[in-house]
């Protein structure tokens, strides 16, 4: 996925004629007396760009955002434990986000963003091996989920790196916190004989989503960081010079 992002950004820079990505983003001066307003506008333009809302630019991979596969070790109270492989993952509206607030320390290149996703949906195929209700199980199927009011807080510290005489930003420290307000899932087994046990799991989750979301929080936070946020962020920082993102 990261390589796809690199290629896309490079092509945008090399292929731009009447307008460039720099023009679309319109970066801020650190000395701007109203830096916060300028930076909020800059971020909102970046969000619009990723969501294909700026004419002349097309991001082909963001909605749905596709992830080939990931492995997850699950251990959920009252359900059981399993090793799960999820593949052909599609996340819709991953970047449809509202910025609630930003904080920053320009001298130390520290930025903190508070964000809300009103609604996200995801679907995937899965293979689970483990124990369900203390019974050994091998289950294959598909799952669809809807998440609402997803609040995120991202804290970033950047550093300056130099490549071929050009300065770029790179992530020096990254912290992500997430809270999902509510969720519902629909699970289908490839084997109809296994559907009743998946119906039980589905109903347990949907009846008390808050309990299971809290249990799963460390897992989905880590996956969002490594599979969604960091690949896009690292690729953009690798391509775009520092003085095109933040002007002195």
TrEMBL record:
SMART domains: JHBP. GO terms for cellular component: extracellular space. Pfam families: JHBP. InterPro entries: Haemolymph_juvenile_hormone-bd, To_sf. PANTHER family: CIRCADIAN CLOCK-CONTROLLED PROTEIN-LIKE PROTEIN (PTHR11008:SF14), PROTEIN TAKEOUT-LIKE PROTEIN (PTHR11008). This is Uncharacterized protein. It comes from Ignelater luminosus.
């Amino acid at each position: 996925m990261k390589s796809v992002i690199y290629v896309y950004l490079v092509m945008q820079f090399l292929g731009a004629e009447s307008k460039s990505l720099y023009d679309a983003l319109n970066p801020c001066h650190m000395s701007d007396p109203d830096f916060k307003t300028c930076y909020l506008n800059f971020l909102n333009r970046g969000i619009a760009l990723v969501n294909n809302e700026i004419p002349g630019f097309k991001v082909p991979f963001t909605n749905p955002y596709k992830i080939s596969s990931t492995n997850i070790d699950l251990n959920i109270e009252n359900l059981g434990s399993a090793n799960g492989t999820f593949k052909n993952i599609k996340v819709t509206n991953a970047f449809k986000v509202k910025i609630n607030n930003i904080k920053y320390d320009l001298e130390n290149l520290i930025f903190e963003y508070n964000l809300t996703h009103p609604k996200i949906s995801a679907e995937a195929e899965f293979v689970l091996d483990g124990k369900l209700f203390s019974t050994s199980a091998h289950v294959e199927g598909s799952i669809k989920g809807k998440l609402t009011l997803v609040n995120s807080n991202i804290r970033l510290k950047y550093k300056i790196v130099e490549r071929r005489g050009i300065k770029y930003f790179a992530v020096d420290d990254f912290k992500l916190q997430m809270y999902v307000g509510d969720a519902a899932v629909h699970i289908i087994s490839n084997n109809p004989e296994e559907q009743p046990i998946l119906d039980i799991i589905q109903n347990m989750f949907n009846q008390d989503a808050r309990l299971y979301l809290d249990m799963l929080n460390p897992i989905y936070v880590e996956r969002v960081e490594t599979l969604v946020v960091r690949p896009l962020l690292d690729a953009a920082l690798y391509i775009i010079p520092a003085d095109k993102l933040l002007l002195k």
